[in-house]
Amino acid sequence: MAASLTDHDEDGRISRTEYRTAVIAIANAADANKDGFITRDEFAYTPADLALFDNNGDGIVTSVGLQEFIDGMDVAFDTMDTDMDNHLSAGELTAARGRYGIAPPVSMNGAANGDQAASAKPRPLSKG
Questions:
Q1: What are phi and psi of 22, to 5 degrees?
Q2: Is the overall model pTM greater than 0.70, yes or no?
Q3: Model confidence over 50-75: pLDDT tens digits?
Q4: Which of 27, 35, 52, 120 is a Cys-bridge partner for 72, taking CB atoms 3.0 to 4.6 Å apart?
Q5: Residues 6+ apart with CB under 8 A from 102
Q6: How far apart are the first and last CA of the chain?
Q7: What's the CA angle centered on 74, arms 65 and 38, to 5 degrees?
Q8: Residue 118 DSSP class
Q9: 39 pairs with which residues across the strands?
């Protein structure tokens, strides 16, 4: 996907708004046939995604409505935001490495909450 987590205000953290902007772009790009659903053919789900999108608990995801995808990724944000400040620090992104399609941050501008890893911007949020 072409969307990425970008620290637009360069405060050294990814805000919920910055995160949601990337998630919406990913959802819209993933819906290749523009039918309002993201199928497994359009988007490779990971085991972590099942916890977010397998609404009936059958262990498979056949399709996800765009809003369900966005809502599921909001749950992922809440899980990653361990200090519950509505921002993801470089440390929180590093801890989430490999979960929810989050690529490890390579650089972020500024420092957030004394986090030494906050010297880099995060790489793109991507699925697949």
A1: -65, -40
A2: no
A3: 677 777 777 666 778 888 888 888 88
A4: 52
A5: 5, 80, 93, 96, 122, 125
A6: 9
A7: 20
A8: G
A9: 63
The token duo for 27 is 């959802």
Cα separation, 58 vs 70, in Å, equals 21
- The type of residue at 11 is D
Three-state DSSP class for 88?
strand
Task: With beta carbons less than 8 A apart as the criterion, state whether 22 and 5 touch.
Answer: yes
89-98: pLDDT as tens digits: 988 988 887 6
For residues 118 and 86, give the distance between their C-alpha atoms in angstroms, rounded to a whole number: 16
**Cα–Cα distance between 43 and 27 in angstroms, integer?**
9
